[in-house]
Automatic annotation (TrEMBL):
Source organism of the structure: Schizophyllum commune (strain H4-8 / FGSC 9210) (Split gill fungus)
Keyword entries, A-Z: Membrane, Transmembrane, Transmembrane helix
Domain SET: 73-230
Pfam families: SET (PF00856)
InterPro entries from the UniProt entry: H3K4_H4K5_MeTrfase, SET_dom, SET_dom_sf
GO annotation, cellular component aspect: nucleus
Name of the molecule in the record: SET domain-containing protein
Membrane-spanning residues: 296-315
Length: 402
């Protein structure tokens, strides 16, 4: 986007001064952060009210194809129905493939985690009546108690958008349908229950400004769609501790397995190519790792996507085009489903070690999957002309948005 456009002030309708009830707090475009209606004052797909830092706003509008039209599934792919022992749940109506979109919505409100509850309340006060009514209808199980009513519902139902547009500031997005709280009526806030071995994930598309529910692996018609409210890579005790303040106990099969699940998580490693003598050995190790992750239902972890990408490159290197194409398709589906995911707090999958992609024997792999490995490993790329190699440094820890 042209620099002059970035410097241009938004039109008057995009600058919405607001004042909290009973408070002198005022938020406008002159403040930082400022309150703004996105993507525009009137949009056929709906709008959301966002409290954004100036740097975040500039990054947001600088994205190619922003604002992108909201993606919708071609037909209704889910239904809300009673779930065994868990109130209402969301179920697949048809067979769904990995990465497939189940539903999408514009959030009611997007706010940074770094501001006060008073500022959250001021933002909520500026919502249109229908949106404010939807926010107030959400459940309130804020473990702290007290505080302001709208702020409590934001804290209870907001899903974290880690570093929106790489701004360095975390945001909470509150959706009427994708809220994680129990409710009444035939909407999705009743469903998408927690599972530490999820088959679906909530992601935030910053170009379309939408919360999306996508499936992580193939799902059959009638299967319940489950997301992870916390980091699925954490040990059992840590997951329970993260859920306890919200008066919630996860009863998924992963938690029911007890220490066995922790043992499996401790063995998850991204194969280190420094110590692999041939592509065939690399393929064997990646396939074994994928089998472990799939058996545990942990496709949500960054290690899974990294192994898929490595296999696509390795099969291409040995000339097996059929399998290279197959794993490239799986990599694309996984990446599209998990990119900018907003499940729970900032996620980490554990320290899986550094991944190094060498030139020479690994040239095809490096050229195809360097960016994928960087995203999965949370590292940076260094080039060395003297040694003739490109290195991804840093651990394989991955937030689910990377």
């Amino acid at each position: 986007m042209a620099p002059e456009l970035l410097r241009r002030r938004p039109p008057p309708w995009m600058s919405i001064p607001t004042k909290a009830h009973g408070s002198s707090l005022s938020i406008s475009f002159k403040t930082d952060p400022f309150l703004i209606t996105l993507p525009r004052a009137v949009d056929p797909h709906g709008t959301c009210l966002a409290l954004l830092a100036r740097a975040t706003y500039k990054d947001l509008i600088s994205q190619p194809s922003y604002p992108r039209p909201v993606l919708r599934p071609p037909s209704i792919l889910h239904r809300v129905a009673p779930a065994a022992g868990a109130g209402l749940g969301v179920f697949a109506v048809h067979d769904l493939g990995a990465g497939e979109l189940v539903f999408s919505e514009r959030p009611l409100l997007v706010v940074p985690t770094s501001v006060t509850e008073c500022e959250w309340e001021a933002c909520a006060a500026r919502l249109p009546p229908a949106a404010l009514g939807a926010l107030v209808a959400l459940a309130d199980v804020d473990p702290r108690g007290g505080g302001r009513p709208a702020a409590r519902r934001i804290r209870t139902n907001g899903v974290r958008v880690p570093s929106l547009c790489d701004s360095g500031t975390d945001y909470l997005a509150v959706g009427a349908l994708s809220a994680r709280s129990p409710g009444s009526g035939a909407d999705l806030r009743c469903g998408t229950p927690d599972s530490c071995a999820p088959n679906a994930v909530l992601r935030f598309d910053s170009r379309a400004l939408t919360l999306e529910l996508r499936v992580l692996r193939d799902v059959r018609a009638g299967d319940e769609l489950r997301v992870s409210y916390v980091d699925a890579g954490l040990p059992l005790a840590a997951r329970r501790a993260a859920l306890a303040p919200w008066r919630f106990a996860c009863d998924c099969s992963c938690c029911a397995s007890g220490d066995a699940g922790d043992t499996l998580r401790a063995r998850i490693r991204v194969p280190d190519l420094r110590f692999i003598s041939s592509p065939a050995v690399g393929i064997q190790r990646c396939v074994l790792q994928l089998m472990q992750l799939e058996r545990a239902g942990l496709e949500v972890l960054g290690a899974y996507g990294t192994c898929l990408g490595l296999l696509a490159g390795l099969y291409g290197r040995i000339g097996d085009r059929r399998k290279a194409k197959e794993y490239k398709r799986k990599t694309d589906a996984w990446t599209y489903a998990s990119d900018y995911a907003v499940v729970g707090p900032a996620r980490t999958d554990g320290d899986f070690g550094a991944t190094i992609l060498r030139e020479g024997a690994w040239a095809g792999l490096k050229s195809t999957h360097c960016s994928l490995a960087r995203r999965m490993n949370g590292g940076r790329v260094k080039s060395s002309a003297t040694q003739g190699k490109q290195i991804i440094v840093g651990s394989a820890r991955s937030t689910s948005r990377k």
